[in-house]
Specification:
Length: 265
């Protein structure tokens, strides 16, 4: 893209630690904005998206609502070297451990080994699948067998929870084990509506794309894009439950069909 003479780049970063030196070279040549997954140590102009750490804290609060007396849970996710996965997981752990809120992350990351005690709750395992949806399902199936008394499965990326739903359905445990999600896959929203997914921590990817392009356009035109000092253009996560799922889906469909832009509330 640089060789083709583009004027700016917006990117979602898979591996921030290894990609940062190259991204810095890119940022020295054109305006660089990141969305959804960040490389916070790079020279990018801004990160557009929700605070993944805050979304993790929200998911931790949700686990406490579902399991007020404590319990065991498993996280299913593609990979743990992406910044969004790191921060979401750490937010969950910090919330359940009752640790102070980290206003600016990254902080110290909890190791990925199993059986992490979080007060009354235990993160018994974090299973990764490298982006393979069939492997995500098999991981969930393995967890249901390995931990027959498991209380909750949490899908951390968009395809993770549909894979969990499929595994739980095949095991005839829908409604018998709690499911918490991230993102807004159609199957997840239907699961919330039907009552076997409790809630999802939803993003607003439409606004991520809109604001990323708007910032690049303004910078290229010499205008002030209004980037905050901390470089986080925050598009907050929204907890979607059975009470709010219909309104949320109506808003989502409006964005996709009419290109309507509005700030999420």
């Amino acid at each position: 893209m640089l060789a083709k003479g583009i004027d700016g780049i917006a990117i979602s970063v898979i591996d921030p630690d290894n990609m940062t030196p190259f991204l810095n070279e890119v940022g020295d040549q054109v305006p660089l904005v990141m969305f959804d997954s960040d490389a916070p140590d790079s020279n990018r102009l801004a990160y557009v998206g929700m605070s993944n750490y805050a979304a993790g804290r929200m998911a931790g609060e949700t686990i406490k609502e579902l399991l007020p007396d404590g319990g065991d849970f498993v996280i299913i996710v593609s990979r743990l070297d992406a910044q969004n996965a790191i921060e979401r997981r750490q937010g969950i752990i910090d919330e359940l451990q009752g640790l102070p809120y980290q206003s600016s992350y990254p902080g110290k990351m909890t190791p990925t080994e199993a059986n992490i005690k979080c007060g009354k709750w235990t993160l018994v395992d974090t299973r990764t699948d490298g982006g393979d949806e069939s492997r995500a399902k098999s991981n969930a199936e393995d967890m249901l067998i390995k931990y027959p008394d498991l209380d909750l499965l949490l899908g951390m990326w968009s395809y993770s929870t549909p894979a969990i739903i499929s595994a739980v359905r095949d095991a005839d445990k829908l409604g018998k084990i709690h499911i918490v999600a991230f993102d807004q896959e159609t199957e997840v929203l239907q699961g919330i509506r039907d009552g076997y997914v409790y809630a999802t921590m939803a993003q607003d990817p439409y606004t991520y794309g809109y604001r990323s392009c708007e910032i690049l356009y303004q910078v290229i035109k010499g205008e002030d894009p209004g980037i905050p000092e901390n470089k986080l253009v925050d598009v907050p996560a929204l907890k979607v439950t059975k009470e709010t799922v219909d309104d949320f889906q109506t808003k989502l469909e409006s964005q996709l069909t009419s290109g309507e832009f509005f700030e999420q509330r």
